[in-house]
Each structure stands twice: as structure tokens, then as C-alpha cells.
Amino acid sequence: MRRLPEWRRISAPAAVRLDDFHDNRMNLQAAVARPGAVRLAAVLLAALLWPAPDAASQERDAPAPSLPEAQPQLTVDALSVVRVRSKAVPNARSNRTLGPQREGSGVVIDSEGLVLTIGYLIVEAETVDLHAADGRSVPASVVGYDYATGFGLLRALRPLPVKPVEIGRSSAIADRELVLIVGFDGVAPAYVVSRRQFVGYWEYLLDEAIYTAPATVNWSGAALLSREGKLLGIGSLVVTDAMGPRSQVPGNLFVPIDLLKPLLGDLIAHGRSSVRPRPWIGVNSQEVQGNVIVTRVSPESPADRAAMRAGDIIVGVAGQPVKGQADFYGKLWSTGEAGVEIVLDILREGRVEKVSVHSVDRESYFRPKPSL
User: Quick one: which of 88, 301, 340, 354 could link to 92 by a disulfide (CB 3.0–4.6 Å)?
Assistant: First the structure.
């Protein structure tokens, strides 16, 4: 992904002074349209966090005095975000796709050091460290990972110099709403441009993901904040179709925070959801004109043991025809819980073959941190 121009982000080390915003209560839409607006990020951030006063308050308070020079600085710490760095176990199965060392963001969600992030940053993690904007590093333990939503949960092992965020309501946000994307390296303003289903190639589906634009870098685990500073979602991906399948508008995808609320207690208590795990077979796929084409088979996965291979076309599950990726997942997951034997109809070399796959719980495929 090409890096955005520097004016689109507000860097964490440089921080943002509150008094930078005092003289910038201008029309937000005009600021967005203004070519080469080098102060765009600051203007948008001000508009999001400090709504413009109404006419009565302007008349009452004008002329507004300048803020004192000693005003505190606004850093990503103030927005409850930390850097997450993890190192996977040496033989991690995810190393091939995610690499042995991973970096992203996390959001502090309580005063006891719980940090919410995107789960792929911490899957098969051997060590995890959290870093505040001032450079302080705090070790963390993995509390849980929910494979259905993608949320990962950490706990700082020492106190963090970061206040917790207030949890918002993602179902309440509307299209074209202004939001902030806060990653470990700074803040980027954006719009919510759509709310729709997301189908991932790795046996993953969200009924209603949040899509934002313009695209920003360092989205992994980033906080999506409302103009009131409440947490609306956790960053997962960069996409090329933020406004719809034919839009060709780059943006970012966020997992809605409302999905965490029924899960959080289970993640803290048990490290996973109490809902019975879905069957997982270990294929990556791509939908082409309604056809589900296998693009990769995870080594030593159920699909690998069943001799499935890239290029296979999945045309049926348990005798029912498949019409696209979302339909494939729905039929796959409806066969029962993890461990069920699933018969797939596979189109291979011009012939339809039946392949029996013994599914597993996805979590059991990944290698845990060695116990001491």
C-alpha cells in the first residue's frame, strides 16, 4: 500500500498541541475540498473532538481569548492507543503468512491493563510488548482470541501510562460520519463510507463490517473513534472497494465494537468464546463469477490431509450447491460444530469429485506458547 502524504496523518512523537486548533474552527467540508491543505489533519481532528460553538455562544464569548502556551499536548496515549509488538513461537504455522515478528496497535479498554487489538497480531505469540508514545515498554500476556470476529485481547503485566477509552456503540454510526483512525504512529481523519458484509478468503465472514475512506497506513489494531472519542471498531485490513464492490475507492475495514460486548466476559474468563467452535478446514479461496476457487491449502490442515489443492473449485457442501464464498461459509458452518466430517463436491480437471474432510476447531491448528 502506497504511503499517504504526510499531511494526512498527525504523528505521535511530534504530538498535537491543543492551541493549534483554536483558530481553525472553519467549515469542515471546505477544508476537505481545499487543495494542498497541509493543516487538514489538524483541522479535522479539531472539528471531531471540539464541535464548533453555536451562534449564541460565539456572540457571548467573542472575541475568544487565545489558549495559554502551556496547554497539554494531545498524543495517541491521550486517545488510549499503544503500539503492539509480538514475536511468534519458532515453529508457528502462521509465520508463512504473517511473519515471525508482527507490529500494530492496541486500545486500552479498562483501568486494569486490558488492551484490545486485532487477533492476527498475537496468534501463536511467544512474547508481546506494549509501547507508549514516550517510548516506555510494558510486557503483556495474551488473554484471548476470537477467531469468528477477529478480536484479540491482551493484558499489560505492569501499569500502563495510558487512560482507557470509553466504549461506544458501532451500530449508531451512519454513512458519511466523520471519525478518527488512531494508530500507534498517529491520527488520521476519515469518513465512514459503507456498512456491509465482509467475506474474507481465510474462512472468515462479518455480517456488517465498517468501511472508511480515505485509506490510511498502520491500520492493524488501530482504534476507530467517534467525534466524542468513543471506540467504534478495531482496524483489520486495507481494502480497494471501501464504498462498494465496484467503487475502486481504497479505504480501511474495521471490526465493529458491538461484536465485542457479548464476548468480552468469555475472553477474559476463558480466552475464547463460549459459543461452540465452527468447523474449519484450512482453505483460502477466491470468488470468481460465483465460483469458489481454492487458492491455497494450509499445510497439515484438514483440507491438506484430504488432498485438496489450489485450483480446486468447491461446487457443493453436503450435497447442496454453493453459490459464492458467503454461501460456502454458511453451508460449511451449518454442518455442525468443529470435528464434523464434511463432504465437499469439488470440480477438478473437468470432473466433480466428492472429498471427505474431517474438520477441526481452528484454534487447535495453531501452536501455543510452550509452557514453562
Answer: 88
